[in-house]
Amino acid sequence: MSELALLTEYPVKDLLRLDPNETVEQHITVQPGLFKTLTTVELASPLEVTILFDRTTLGLLGRFSATAKVKLECSKCLTPIESTIEGALESEFVHDASPDEELYPIAKNQHIDISQCIIDTIVPAIPPFPLCRANCQGLCQVCGQNLNDHPNHLKEHPDHHSQKSNLANTPRIK
Predict the structure, then answer these.
(1) The model's pTM
(2) Are residues 98 and 162 in the same domain?
(3) pLDDT, tens digit, for every residue of 119-128?
């Protein structure tokens, strides 16, 4: 079975035979290339996923936790960075899930698609404005120079600083 098929057709036949309230732990490693086919997030390391499946009277409750190193870009200076992120999610899988419910279906062949659950576990954990460091100085707004690499740039080019100030004092259109 291919890695993608394992995520989109995860077999649960044995899990559905468990007694209600019984729990089974599963571990999955998702390679960066496969995750990139599922979403736009670029992983710097394999995504490690742990799933605790609880048998319920209606189907299965999946408690997902995931950890990965992701490739990001600093929101101020655009420097490539890597960040370790962790996420968690609970999803319920039932035999007769209707599309308007927040439940995932168990297919007639007793397989489930866990790919969206894994995406929903890790993507919300990605910081919306990642920084290369807490005191990132960003880019010169005039020439685009990275101010972290050139801390004296605005002193050496006072015209850039004054243009930046002039932009801040520009009247706003109402």
Answers:
(1) 0.77
(2) no
(3) 888 888 988 8
